[in-house]
Amino acid sequence: MPTMSDYYERLGLPRRFSIDEAEVERRYLAQSRQFHPDFHGGASDADQLFVIEQTASLNQAYTTLKDPFRRAEYLLSLLGGPTAGQEKSQDQSFLMQMMETREQMDEIRAAGGSLSELEADLMGQFSVVIADVASRFAKIESQPTPLPTELVDIRRHLNAARTIQSLLRDLRGTPDRG
Amino acid sequence: MPYSDKILEHYNNPRNVGSLDVKSADVGTGLVGAPECGDVLKLQIKVNPVTGVIEDARFKTFGCGSAIASSSLATEWLKGKTVDEAMEIKNTAIVEELALPPVKVHCSVLAEDAIKAAIKNYQEKQDVTADREEPATVGG
After folding, report:
1. Per-residue model confidence (pLDDT) at position B34
2. A166 and B62: CB-CB below 8 Å?
3. Is B37 a catalytic residue?
4. Within 13 Å and on the Cβ side, how many CA atoms surround A103?
5. pTM for the full model?
6. Pairing of strands B54-62, B39-47
7. Catalytic residue among B7, B54, B73, B107
8. Is A101 near chain B, with CB under 8 Å?
9. Signal peptide position in this chain (chain B) (predicted)?
């Protein structure tokens, strides 16, 4: 098995954005059984190391492809699209709206109110962005080569998705990563 | 990686948090996002139109401690500088002053981007005002 195979090849799936997530799950489970340490207990050190490496790369492929946002990020990088550091621009009205949502969140918190409505609203916005990303990938996949502008466009959508995610993380009170 | 005392100091006592009037002709607003981490920063400057000196600066951010500290420091540095001097503020100076860890350098970039965006917004407002006062010469 080539060490540098991409995650799609790793799980034997076609390289596209819209994939059957249940199929990702099935393929992951089938392969992970094969590498389960219980079946390799008596193996040599080298074999055990191989199993550990395979399990790690399999887990990575699975966690990346089962999640639409991570999958989109990964697929964009495979297509040679810009990273978040290279293409930072975001829509001004979107950023303003995120700023306002954040202020609203602080006000509701200060008043001891419920954030569930705001959370549902943000999750809805996130789904809309991801659906938009899905249709853009579908368009790219129907043509021979993606145009740079199309990749930049997907990057901007993913930037927005990440900003919404960050707000959701804050809303749910998940500890800051850094 | 532990944060420096300076980061913590700005984080615990952020300077110049708040908003200026977006619509005012003397106020430039920069709104930027750091998509790597989802932070958003609004930075505003109030410029004296006669002297070109930045008299006030405010920020609002939702972001991590380093984003807050970088913006807080940036607003402190902006006050009293001319617009031209403000253009010279580099994110590397913020990194150095706060001893930001490498994974947080993008927070200082966000602050620099916001400064530039705020200045650009202020200058655009001045151009619009100037255009109204003295109509542009044809072909000029």
Report:
1. 83
2. yes
3. yes
4. 13
5. 0.79
6. antiparallel
7. B107
8. no
9. none
CATH number of the A7-66 domain? 1.10.287.110
Least Cα separation, residue A92 to chain B (angstroms):
7
**Amino acid, single-letter form, for residue A142:** S
Contact assignment for A166 to B32 by CB distance below 8 Å: no
A69 close contact with B: CB closer than 8 A = no
Other C-beta atoms lying within 10 Å of the C-beta of residue A69? 16
Q: Which amino acid is at A64?
A: T
In chain B, where the domains are located: 5-123
Question: Does pLDDT of A1 surpass 50?
Answer: no
Cα four-point dihedral sign A26, A28, A29, A35: positive
Chain B: residue whose CA lies nearest to A92 = B31
Say what the pLDDT of residue A89 is.
79
Q: How much is the average pLDDT of A39-65?
A: 84
- In three-state secondary structure terms, B31 is strand
In the predicted model, what is the mean pLDDT of residues A149-153? 95
B113, A88: Cβ pair inside 8 Å?
Answer: yes
Task: Report the topology of domain B5-123.
Answer: Sufe protein. Chain: A (3.90.1010)
- Least Cα separation, residue B35 to chain A (angstroms): 5
Is the pLDDT at B140 greater than 70? The verdict is: no
Angle at A150 between CA A147 and CA A155, to 5 degrees: 130
Concatenating the DSSP letter of every residue in A84-123 gives TTT-----HHHHHHHHHHHHHHHHHHHTT---HHHHHHHH
Assess contact for A130 and A68: CB atoms under 8 A: yes
Active site residue B64: no
Say if CB B87 and CB B101 are below 8 A apart: no
Partner-chain contact B62 A99, CB within 8 Å: yes
Q: Give pLDDT, residue A40.
A: 65
Residue spans per domain, chain A: 7-66, 86-172
In this prediction, residues B121-136 reach a mean pLDDT of 77
- Which residue of the set B37, B40, B64, B93 is catalytic? B37
